[in-house]
Design a protein that fits this description.
Helix 1 runs parallel beside helix 3, helix 1 packs antiparallel against helix 4 and helix 2 runs antiparallel to helix 3. About 6% of the residues have low confidence. The protein is mostly helical. The protein contains 13 helices and no strands. The N and C termini lie far apart (83 Å).
């Protein structure tokens, strides 16, 4: 077998190994009590990624169509196969250090593997056909390097960091949804107003059912104004979880508790998006009622996790200054999102969460009652 044929065979093995490794990383992995310490695993993973980065550079330089050196590429290709397997094995060992962290590691590894597969197939074409522009092989090599750089840059320090990262991403989207509703209220329910020059384009979008937002009726605007404070409280609640709960140091025994948080955050985000969608004209009262009930249920599930799993403990508060929604909102807005004041006592944190949950429940019940009254009177 010629050197060129050997190169093509090795590239095919790389592509097949990447595909098989991605499937392996999709599987559920059992908890291995004898898994290495996290610091050791993290160091090994970073070393493997550095080696893959270097090897893809070597392969790229030796297989350039204009001056290919097939013999010189054999050793780095063989090493690349070995370290792809090492990357896969290492990425499956993080589960004992937290499910959220392990999922992030496997996702990062899969992104690298996908780009390596594309890299291998592209160079197979280059070797077999002998034609490729400088941009072709540089782009494919650069894509692998970018995936590795992104993985290394975003590799969490621990499971708590992974949970905080996901919570923060959801918080940004929750704030966007809240801003969307705020714009509805501030514009008094007015729809999008375009220039006359855009009429033709708008008509085309309208035909697809994707036209400009309709103007709200006074009744629809009134409903939106009733829902807005509840959504504002939910966003503040989500923010305070990050500030007061997820910022605390966690021991490894807390992994099972921490791993409950990201799914619940995402559940809350989806429920929020359903509420926002239901607020656009033309509003459907039954749909809105269902959306309000669902988001209230999601908030209640978060409360159960926080209280039953001892993240925080409920206390009976007599602090009447926290029962007013505007006062509570102002107090939250004064809090530093980057950390909690050292003077704040744990009891104050518990009081805030107790009051916030009570307010959200009360607001949701009032909205549902109002919608029911509308339905019965119509």
């Amino acid at each position: 077998m010629s050197e060129k044929q050997n190169v093509v065979t090795l590239l095919a093995v790389i592509a097949e190994t990447c595909s098989a490794s991605k499937l392996a990383l999709d599987q559920t992995h059992s908890q291995n009590a004898s898994a290495p310490e996290f610091s050791v695993l993290r160091k090994d993973l970073l070393s493997i990624l550095t080696l893959i980065y270097t090897l893809t550079t070597k392969v790229s330089l030796t297989l350039r169509a204009s001056e290919a050196a097939h013999g010189a590429s054999l050793a780095p290709l063989q090493d690349l196969i070995k370290y792809i397997s090492s990357l896969t094995t290492c990425s499956t060992l993080f589960d004992p250090h937290g499910r959220t962290l392990a999922e992030d590691v496997r996702k990062g590894a899969q992104d690298v593997l996908e780009n390596l597969k594309v890299f291998a197939r592209a160079f197979t074409d280059i070797v077999e056909q002998g034609e490729a522009s400088r941009e072709d092989y540089l782009v494919k090599t650069g894509a692998v390097h970018d995936a590795i750089d992104h993985f290394r840059r975003n590799l969490p320090e621990d499971n708590a960091a992974s949970v905080r990262s996901r919570w923060s991403k959801d918080r940004e989207m929750l704030e966007d949804s809240l801003a969307e509703v705020g714009e509805m209220v501030e514009s008094d329910g007015a729809g999008d107003v375009g220039d006359d020059s855009d009429d033709e384009v708008s008509d085309e979008w309208d035909e697809l059912g994707l036209g400009s937002v309709k103007t709200m009726t006074p009744q629809e605007l009134d409903r939106t104004k009733k829902v807005h404070p509840m959504l504002r409280m939910i966003v503040l609640l989500h923010k305070r979880v990050l500030v007061d709960i997820l910022k605390a140091p966690f021991t490894p025994t807390s992994h099972s508790l921490l791993d409950k948080m990201p799914p619940q955050s995402h559940d809350l985000l989806l429920a929020m998006e359903d509420v926002v969608a239901a607020l656009y004209a033309l509003q459907d009262i039954p749909v809105m009622r269902t959306a309000i009930m669902n988001i209230a249920a999601s908030v209640n599930r978060l409360k159960l996790i926080l209280y039953q799993d001892s993240f925080i403990r409920s206390v009976d508060t007599k602090d009447k200054t926290l029962t007013d929604i505007d006062a509570l909102t102002k107090k939250m807005e004064r809090a530093d999102i980057h950390g909690t004041p050292t003077q704040r006592k744990a009891a104050d944190v518990r009081k805030w969460f107790d009051t916030c949950f009570e307010q959200i429940l009360k607001l949701s019940q009032n909205i549902i009652t109002s919608l029911d009254d509308e339905s019965s009177s119509s």
